Structure formats: C-alpha cells, structure tokens
Amino acid sequence: MNSRDIALSPIPKKPSLVEDVIQELSNFILEGMIEGKLKLGDRLPSEREISDLLHVGRSTLREAMKVLTILGLLEARTGQGTFITDGSSDFYAAPLAWGLIIGEQSIAELIEARALLECEAASLAAVRATPEEREQLKQAFIDMQSAKERGDVQRFIDEDVRFHITLAKAAHNAVIFQTIKTIRRLLELWIQKVLVSAESLAETVEEHRTVVDAIRLHDAEQAKFAMQRHIGSATERLKNVTEWK
After folding, report:
1. pLDDT tens digits for 9-62?
2. Is 116 in the same domain as 68?
3. What CATH number corresponds to the domain at position 152?
4. Do 112 and 78 reside in the same domain of the chain?
C-alpha cells in the first residue's frame, strides 16, 4: 500500500489524541475494506508515513496501534511491519469492539458489565465446572503465583487472562463466555497498567486464591462474593492509574 493512496486526515492535538488516532485509523481501515481499497492481510505504511499524515508523534501512534492490536484489528509482525488481521481475530466477530473508543465513560461501563458477568460466571462455574476445568483453573492460579514470585509481570498478565477465560468457559454459558472475552480484550491495556507493582500482584494473587477455593468447594455464593471483592479491588486499582473516577 502506498501512502499517496491513504485518505487520512490530520489529527488536532488535544487531551484525547490517542483516542482520536484510534478512531481515525479504525475508520480508515473499515471504510477502505467496505470500498474495496483494502483487504484482510494488507500491510499498513510505515509508522513514519502514518505519523506524518496524521500530524502526530510516533509515540502517540504506537500507543493507538497497540490498542488496535489488542482489539484484534491489527497484527504486528517482527521485521515485516503492521498488518490488518487476516480475519481469524475475534475483533470481526465482536460487535462490542466496533463502536467503542475507550474513554473514561467506556471504561466505567465496561467494568460495570465485567463485574456483573464475571461474578455470575464464578457462581455458575462453582456448580458447573468439570473436574478438568477445576484443575485448569487451579493450574492457572499456580502459574500466576509463580510469575508473581519471579517478578515476571508479562507472564503474570498472561496467566491472569488464562484464569479468567478458563473460569468464564467453566460457567458453560456461551453468551457469557464470548462477552467476557470481548470485555477482557477491550480492557487489556488498562489491566496491564494496573499490574505493574509487587503490591498489586500480591493483592491480585490473594483475591484469585479465594475464588479458586470457593469453586473447589462448589460454593456458588462464596465464589460470587470472592469475584465481587476481586473486581471491586481491581476497579480501585484501575482508578489510581487512569483519569477515570
């Protein structure tokens, strides 16, 4: 793709600059695909070309592209560049993702939805989880704990995702499972910002321990309560690293 073929508009500098870049890039890609100018798997121009067209710094562009990569619209390939995903991503099947530019209001609403769904999922998992799923949940917790002890934040984040997705699957409700997956994807960038201190990692481990214990005991009420406490604490930690209050 040649930069001369791109109809991107310069972005004015203001506090929501990253969100504006996300909006401009996603609209450009989606409109280009609708008009037949772009297709799945196409490579985007270089960071320099795009930042020049948008009149934004490369650090701002990288943050915006990171969000779109987390959402599944873009894929970064080492040594090759950034590509529109090939269609295997959840982004194309997740209606929540299309209309959301993640600002303060969106974060609040996503967390509210996450609390409702994950608490219910924990309750259902306590009753419905198979022995294999309970073992998978326990192993995800053990791996989280191990990552915390080694100070491996990225591995901790990966295991935290695995824990919550495993729990959602163990609820045996396809709608709850798919919606939780989408919400987790949309919040992932902000969750990463929370899990950066040893204190946050330790607190998170203990909160997950109580969820595992409740599910092991088939205690639906306690599992729901433990997840409520975890989501509540996580929300407070999130408030401390964002402008959302």
Report:
1. 665 545 468 888 887 887 787 677 767 788 888 999 999 999 998 999 999 999
2. no
3. 1.20.120.530
4. no
18 and 66 fall within a common domain: yes
Q: ∠ CA 153-202-228 to the nearest 5 degrees?
A: 105
Are 19 and 62 in contact, with CB atoms under 8 Å apart?
no
E strand map for 61-181: 74-77, 81-84
Query: What is the pLDDT of the chain when averaged over all its residues?
Result: 82
| Residue that is last in its domain, among 32, 62, 93 | 93
- Report d(CA 109, CA 106) in Å as an integer: 5
pLDDT tens per residue, range 64-74: 898 888 777 88
Q: Cα separation of 17 and 37, whole Å?
A: 26
How would you classify residue 218: left for phi > 0, otherwise alpha for psi between -120 and 50, otherwise beta?
left
Does residue 86 sit in the same domain as residue 16? Answer: yes
> Structurally, how many domains does the chain consist of?
2
Gap between the Cα atoms of 83 and 46, Å rounded = 11
- Residue 232 pLDDT exceeds 70: yes
Could you tell me if 141 and 65 lie in one domain?
Answer: no
- C-beta neighbour count of 197 within 10 angstroms: 12
Is 11 within 8 Å of 24 (Cβ atoms)?
A: yes
For residues 171 and 128, the answer to whether their CB atoms sit within 8 Å is yes
Identify the domain containing residue 117 by its residue range.
103-241
